[in-house]
Structures are given as structure tokens and as C-alpha cells.
Structure to design on (674 residues):
């Protein structure tokens, strides 16, 4: 299907909240044949009023599609995946947008769908929710994790990578599901735990009212994501429970180091630990990257290709191009220098 | 001296970094007679090039002044306070801008200067430092803590409150030194501990590079103040050591509650705890305030006035007006409804 180019792909989006809705809007804007579906009839009506193609049933939405994006809450994914797989041909590529990857990847494997399902996670969002909040540019420049299948069926990964880079202008970060879940525990989930603990400690303090009166920029920044709907945050943490609990131990140990230096009145030790934090923080905005181009045979064993992709993601790099001709796949990437 | 109005006051600023420099700039902009001094000759030259009046010695800077602001690092305050007190008349009001208040207040009391020294803390700042980074509007709308003397010598407090409200357009928050230090431990210092721990944990993680690649908005917000110069943060924490260690226990307990709910896979309990955090966070931006006007006799015992002021600060309120006539002082304030 890649031979017709990604703009010839027929796509469906099942579950059109903030993320799924933004995917749908961008695909339409780019001129692709795209059909939406959402379990909520009000959302379907709202979509049609915006001139979007919406089907009344999931089966109807995904029939004859080349690619299906699964939106919707994490808990809905197993059911939807099974239904979509039954209603589509074996060469239809299915991906999802859930915030954790191990559970859904294991489910796909256990149900014989690993060859068709490429777990995905676009790292974008806002505090808002629903199709009404969706915007087509949501993924511009954002990281979008894709988990290539370990068994060598890599053409689905290539199709999605090309589509997502060309149409959504996102940065593709290839990772295995457990590496993804371990990384997002620290890069996305634990920040919610710490923001919640700071705001919660202030709420329970006897001088709570005065704290609100004197809230500095550090307090406002440090509690911002505590304003996220509580149930949504709880679901996110529960879904990545093992990795969050595990990575929290790194936070505990660092906190213990800071506390020991403070207790000992040891300004040198304290400055040293805070210097480690500062270096990490600075590399967020100023990490030099270098361009890389790699080619692999289009057909045959893909273990070298897979190895390149997974090392790229683990090193903090990303793909910014993927093209395929009769015999060769060419990746362009940026990785830390 | 209040009878001539605050615009007739002669003021000095000793120590003209970011905060002291911004005070100096704003006083000059407002047309007051103000003189600066800094231990660094380069800073004095830089100030003069900007057309500011700078003295070469501290004694010369503060001689004949009605009000002296002490800028400079916390460690310099005791020395500077003694020198300024010796070089000025007994009716000269001295205040400081340090980020903790108990230590300097105890020092002033121990040196017989409690009747002339009103500990202060303007809650404003930027990541930058030095006179070159100073801006006259830095305190517009900011909270500015002042600690009225407990022994009833309250006219100095009134003078400063009027000056700071009228000239700097800041919100005066009256507090005792220990209440201030306890509040800022949570509203300003512990956020640096948590930001440092999040960034530090990421730095020490085996997937550190990948975390930087996938850093979400929550991670960026949660680590922002980890970018502050490490020594400055270490000094700030060490200076409020007891209160920071003490208030960290509230954070520990909340963190333990979140972790227990997560470990037990108890989404209801987790949602409940996060709901406490969310309520506190929402009250940051949407706490209804009501106006209050109170009058007290200008002379005589000030215990009722002191009581009003300290309750106002503890309740999360602030003064937005202070005026004095022959017999009466009038405060206007906003406090949580």
C-alpha cells in the first residue's frame, strides 16, 4: 500500500476524544480518506456538523481501511482491538494512542494480533478533553512513540512512521513497550505524583490559607498538573503501576540525599546534588543532536533495522524521515551528539 | 515623617542585586530621593552609568536617610544591619528583603534593634541575577511580607506598608517571622526540593537519555526551578533548614498515601487523594476575596492592630491600603471570603 504514498491510504479513527479527534482533523486537513467513529452518538453528531465523515457503527467505520487508529480510554482498547481486527483484512495496520504500552501489547500478542498491531503513544495533550477540544496541529513537533514488532514484521511500522512524520509532522520515537512504560513513568507520570503531593501537603497544612496567599512561581509550576481531573490521573497511574512504583525509588533516593545534606547543614553536598539536577534540566533545552541516515533491505530479516530503531529511541533520538522504494527502506534520524 | 507623605521620604538601598536594584529603580522612577550602595565597585559604576545616585561607602549611602532597604545575600545581613544602624538616626526605619525571617529578626532583637528593624520579604524574582537584570515593575501585584514588631512599636511598619503599597503596588502580607518561614517552606522552598528530586532521579536513571527525549509538559513544569543556580538554592534551603525539614513531613505523608493507594490498585482512594490536591490547586486561581476596612488609634497600645494584621496574613489576606492622619491609622485589605 505504501507504493501509492501515504496520501492514498484509507484511514479510520475509532474513539474521537481529544487525541483521536485531533488525528481525524489532521488527516482530513491533509486530504486523506478518513472515517471516524465514537461510541457516543452526541460526538458522532458533533463530528458530522463539522463536516467530518462519521459511521454509526465501528464495523462500518473500519471496513475497507488500510490503517485504523484506536483512540478512547485505555480500558476500552482490548475490546475495540478485537472488533476492529475482525472487521478488517489481515493487511490493515492497527495502532493505538494509549499512554501505556505493555498491557495492550501483551493483549495483542495473546490474541494473535501482534503482526497487525503496532502500539503507539503520541506525547501531546492539553488539560481539556473531547472532540470539541481537538485541534489538527496538536502533534506538530511532538514525540510519537511507536513499538515495532519484535518478530520481524516491520512493514506496518514503516507505513505508520511515514504517515505520522509526513502528515502529523511528529518525531517518531521507536521503543519496546516496557522501555516506553519505564521512561514515561519518570517523564510524565511521576511528575503528577509529585505535583499532587506538593498541593496535597499544602492542603493539609495548618497554614494552608497563608500558603495560597504566598504561592511563588515555584509552587505554581510545581502544582500545575495537580489541576488535571483526578480520575484521569488516577487511571493513568494505575495503568502504569509497576513502573511508577519502581521508578519512584529513584526519586526517594535523591530526596533522601537532599534531606541528609540539609539535615547535616552541608551546603557543599547540597549544592553538588542540586548540580546533578540542574545539568539534567539544562539538557532538556540544549542537547546537541546530529543527523543520521540509515538504509536497510525492504524484504528479508529485519533484525538490524529493529536494532537500529530501538537503540535510536533509547538514546533519546527520533526519526524524522522514512521512505521505501522497491528494494530499500531509508530512515533519516536525529540522535544526541 | 509620614506627614510629608511617602514621596518625601529619603531612602537608601544597600546591596543592589536583582531585588535591591529593582527597588532602587522603582523608587527613582517614582521621584523619591534615593541613594544606592553595593559592595561591588563594578555594580556602583554600572548604576552611575544608568544615572542612579550611588555612594562609595555604606556609611555615606545611609547617612540622613529615613528608610533603608537591605539587599544582598542572607549571610551579609547581620553585618550590614549593624553598620546601617550605627550610621543612621534612631528614627530611621530599616528593612531587608531576605527570603527567611526568623534568623535576622532574632539577630536584630539580640542587638537591641528590634524597634528600628522591620523584617521584610518581597515575593518576586526571576531566574536572572544582578543589577543588570533589575526592573522597576518587578513588585507590581506581588506579595511583600512585612513582620510588625511584637512590642507595639508599630509606626515603622505603617511607614513601610504605605511606601510599599503606594510606590511598589505590592500586596502587604503581615506575618510573624516563624509563620513566614513555615509558610515559605511549602510555598517556595520545598518546590525546589521536589523539582531537584525529579530532575535528579531522571539524571540517575538508566534510561536518562530517553526520558529527555520524551519529556512531557508535566516534566518540564515539574523541573523548571531545578534550573536555578544550585548554590543559590542550597543557601535558601539551608537558611530555612528547620522549617523545610519539618514541612517535608507533610509531603512524605501525602506521598505515602498516594503510594499505598497505587500499591493496593485502589483507584477510588487514589482519585480521592488527588482530589484534595486538585482543590488546593484550584483555589490558587479562584479564591473569592472580600474587602475589609479597619481603623486603629495612631498612638497608644497597638495590640488590637497587631492582632488584626497577623490574622490577616495567616488567613491568606493582604493589605492594599494604609493611611495615617493626626489620630487614626486606616487599613484597607482583602481577605478570603
Amino acid at each position: 500500500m505504501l507504493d501509492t504514498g501515504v496520501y492514498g491510504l484509507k484511514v479510520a479513527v475509532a474513539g474521537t476524544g481529544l487525541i483521536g479527534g485531533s488525528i481525524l482533523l489532521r488527516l482530513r486537513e491533509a486530504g486523506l480518506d478518513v472515517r471516524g467513529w465514537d461510541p457516543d452518538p452526541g460526538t458522532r453528531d458533533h463530528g458530522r456538523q463539522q463536516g467530518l465523515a462519521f459511521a454509526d457503527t465501528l464495523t462500518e467505520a473500519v471496513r475497507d481501511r488500510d490503517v485504523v487508529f484506536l483512540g478512547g480510554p485505555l480500558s476500552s482498547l482490548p475490546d475495540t482491538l478485537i472488533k476492529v481486527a475482525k472487521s478488517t483484512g489481515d493487511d490493515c495496520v492497527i495502532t493505538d494512542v494509549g499512554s501505556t504500552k505493555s498491557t495492550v501489547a501483551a493483549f495483542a500478542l495473546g490474541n494473535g494480533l501482534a503482526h497487525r498491531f503496532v502500539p503507539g503513544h503520541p506525547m501531546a495533550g492539553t488539560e481539556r478533553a473531547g472532540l470539541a477540544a481537538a485541534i489538527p496541529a496538536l502533534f506538530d513537533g511532538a514525540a510519537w512513540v511507536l513499538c515495532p514488532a519484535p518478530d520481524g514484521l516491520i512493514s506496518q511500522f514503516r507505513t505508520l512512521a511515514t504517515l505520522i512524520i509526513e502528515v502529523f509532522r511528529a518525531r517518531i520515537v521507536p521503543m519496546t513497550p516496557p522501555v516506553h512504560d519505564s521512561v514515561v513513568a519518570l517523564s510524565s507520570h511521576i511528575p503528577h505524583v509529585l505535583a499532587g503531593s506538593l498541593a496535597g501537603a499544602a492542603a493539609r497544612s495548618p497554614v494552608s490559607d497563608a500558603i495560597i496567599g504566598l504561592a511563588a512561581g515555584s509552587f505554581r509550576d510545581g502544582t500545575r498538573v495537580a489541576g488535571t481531573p483526578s480520575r484521569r490521573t488516577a487511571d493513568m497511574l494505575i495503568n502504569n503501576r509497576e513502573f511508577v512504583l519502581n521508578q519512584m525509588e529513584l526519586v526517594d533516593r535523591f530526596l533522601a540525599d537532599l534531606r541528609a545534606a540539609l539535615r547535616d547543614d552541608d551546603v557543599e553536598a547540597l549544592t553538588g546534588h542540586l548540580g546533578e539536577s540542574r545539568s539534567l534540566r539544562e539538557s532538556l533545552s540544549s542537547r546537541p543532536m546530529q543527523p543520521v541516515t540509515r538504509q536497510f533491505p525492504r524484504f528479508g530479516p529485519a533484525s538490524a533495522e529493529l536494532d537500529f530503531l530501538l537503540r535510536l529511541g533509547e538514546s533519546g533520538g527520533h526519526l524524522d524521515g522514512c521512505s521505501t522504494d522497491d528494494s530499500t527502506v531509508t530512515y533519516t534520524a536525529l540522535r544526541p551528539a
User: Anything to note?
Assistant: The longest strand of chain A covers residues 289-297. The CA atoms of residues 106 and 244 of chain A lie 19 Å apart. Chain A touches chain B through 99 residues (CB under 8 Å).
